[in-house]
Amino acid sequence: FTYSVVKEFEDKLKDYTPPNLQDYWIEDIAPGTLCTDYLKDHIFSKIDASKTLLIDGVDAVLGQEKTQNPFLNLLRTWNEKEMKNVGQEKIVWPRIAIAYSTEPYPEFGIKGSILQNVGIEVELEEFSRDEVKILATKYGLNWSLDEVDVLMNFIGGHPTLVNQALYKVSQEGMSLSKLKIESATLKGPFRHHLLHKLELIQKNENLLKCLQSILKGEECEDEFSKFQLEKAGLISNNSEKVQVKFELYQKYFEAHILN
Fold it and tell me: Which residues contact 28 (CB under 8 A, 6 or more apart)?
C-alpha cells in the first residue's frame, strides 16, 4: 500500500528521491506506523501543491484476517490525528477520498459502516431518468423517455445493469420486451450479476428468510437482515415501505427462492 501511494505521487517530488522502502521498513515497528511516518516525512511534506489521495476498492480487505482491521484502523488514525490537525503547522496531509462497495456486508456479517465517523459519507446515486437517456444516446439509441421508463421500471438506474442492457439492445439488436423476458433466466443478460446475488442469499439463512418474506409482501422483523439486504442493493428500505429494489430482482428471486 505504501509503495502504491509513493508511485502515485513520485512525479510531484521534483528533485527529491525518497529513501528506499526496503531500507526504511523495520519489522519490529507496526506497519501502520511506518507507513504513516514514511508518507508524512518523505512524500506529503515534500509536495507544496494541493493534493488528493483516492483510495478505491477498500472493500477488498474485508474478511482478510491479517489485513482488514489494521488497514481500517490506519485510515481511522489518519482521519483522527493527521487530517484534523488545525494547528499552525503547514498542512502536510492530502485530502483523502475513500471508495468502497457495501455489497460484501452480508458475506462478512458487517453491522454498520466499516469507516463509521470517518469523514463525510456520501452514497453514490443511481442513474437518473435523464442520465439513462443520455447514456442510451451514446450507445446510438434514439430512445424516447417512455422507452427509458420501461427499462428503469425493470432495473432502476443501476449503472452496471443499465450499461449491460443498453449494450444488448444497441449491439445485439435485442428488444426491450425480449430483454425483460430473458433477464430472469440462467442464460439471461444479467445472469452473472444475479447468480452472485443468489449465492450471497443462499449462504445466509437469515437473509434468505427475510428476503422471502419481503418478496411475498410480508413484514421482515429482522432489522439486521434488512440492513444487510439494503447494503447488498437488493431492497429499498424507507419509512413508508420495505420492498425488493427492482422488478428484475422480484422476478428472479420469486423463481429461485420461493418455488
Answer: none
